[in-house]
Amino acid sequence: MAEVTKVALDAMGGDNAPGEVVKGAVEAVLKEEKVYVYLVGKEELIRAELEKYEYDKARVEVVNATEVIEMAESPVSAIRRKKDSSIVAGMKLVREGKADAFVSAGSTGAVLVGGQVIVGRIKGVDRAPLAPLIPTARGFSLLIDCGANVDARASHLVQFAKMGSIYMEHIMGVKDPKVGIVNIGAEEEKGNALVKEAFPLLKETKEINFVGSVEARDIPKGAVDVIVCEAFAGNIILKLYEGLSSVLVAKIKEGLMASLRSKIGALLIKPALKETMKAFDSSEHGGAPLLGLNGLVVKTHGSSGAKEIYNTVLQCVDFKDQKISERIRDCIQAAAPAE
Amino acid sequence: MAEVTKVALDAMGGDNAPGEVVKGAVEAVLKEEKVYVYLVGKEELIRAELEKYEYDKARVEVVNATEVIEMAESPVSAIRRKKDSSIVAGMKLVREGKADAFVSAGSTGAVLVGGQVIVGRIKGVDRAPLAPLIPTARGFSLLIDCGANVDARASHLVQFAKMGSIYMEHIMGVKDPKVGIVNIGAEEEKGNALVKEAFPLLKETKEINFVGSVEARDIPKGAVDVIVCEAFAGNIILKLYEGLSSVLVAKIKEGLMASLRSKIGALLIKPALKETMKAFDSSEHGGAPLLGLNGLVVKTHGSSGAKEIYNTVLQCVDFKDQKISERIRDCIQAAAPAE
Asked: pTM of this prediction?
């Protein structure tokens, strides 16, 4: 039998905590024998939710944590002050080796800071990038980095490219994933200072399948599998994706309500449209991993329901089974043998 | 009677040149008495198109230019070598004061380079930003800068904010336009090095209505009227807007063809949907101006038809009538009285 994957879940994080987190955790335990979950947060609230379900009690452990980090709090001071918060307590389980992964739908900032400070980076990794999947015309691409550490150096982008390639190949099953650097034109001589410096470094990196620049226009077409960029640019891409999709869909819906004729049409197209938009839903593949840490940290959407939590727990199992951390360590450390 | 606005049109630029350029120019001359157009390009081709129409021949002048700058050419060397190209010849008309504005649907790079090199910047303007309108849930916002000069300094962003505000107020009629700087969070302490430096400078700039940071997520909602950013970020926003809109619309269309039921529905919603998408079409307001030059330079879409050309000529009339160049000059030079 394969090894058990132990996942610590922030039972207090996100809009639907603790109900949906507990539900998703129980579903994952029911589905997958080699999963063990810690539900971290206010014990009485978690137990009240757990009572609703039948499950293998030997594989669900409640870890009491009395504090909650709110979305509006400054991440750095919250991580420092709230030692008994679900995020700090859950990440400590990873640091102590009791859990393989930590999952939270709570404050992105606190998850990013906690990941670096509590879980810690793999030796040789300079920055831990946040790498969400974004939907494209052809499936999903990994956008790396969308984290909080802006103004990356060219050498960081090379590490992002390596880590992203490992994730796409071994978790998403994309053979020899195409890596592109976000740029303002397709030519090698184009770009800002950072891109111009990173481009030749990426070109000579043997471990990746670097295909050159990718213009933002071609990202939604699925032109590359791993979209490498500095976090400020990555954040713009991720947030604009969300904002523009929702405004466009709202505009279209508004248009559908314009006349009786279009209203009838809207009723007829509803099921097909729903199916189409579902293909655009990255939460089917779990949350956004924070890569390069001594253990996996995953940020799920603040609006996560049980299904996203469930998918994220299975993502953690894949991450362990596929030895992603070990692969990242070996790949990064091979490039810096002096360390 | 108001002064005549003289517009030089690149009759060779874009996918539909010279036919649609000539058609749009003639329509503008027919509509607006105080317009004079130069059609710059291969004379025999232009005259063959002109023969199709009735118009006031005293206000249409053909300027022969035998060369064409192709899309794939390096802009810098093309501007230097092809002295008899429609872009170089048209821009020279502006430099010599014979034309107030130059309009091209051709190579963006060549238009940007030619604008700086041939037309030249207003004294005190450090960079001439390209400022397209992008559609939002509430109308249109000006995205400034999307040009070719990346890695702007904080002081450049302040100038972009001033120029963008003048354009939105006097051309688009937005009173006291809200200015936001593109950032990865709403708080003042967030951002990359450039944004952190620019934020306090923008805050103390009296001539603008600075409202703080704007997250990419809120751009499509129309959160601000003038979106200030460095050109690399602006290019990502502009191109992702185009790419994501077209992929989403294609996905939805694909969904509509999924079943007989949805196909019937699609027929019923078609007119309403077309109307909705039309509200998202920025070409109704002309092309993207390159601001801060000694005269107006406008880049229209490569796919421009007669209507976009027509609208752009009227945009040039507004630009002159509203004295945008003079306003920009006064505003920028007031900040640097030592010059």
From this structure: 0.93
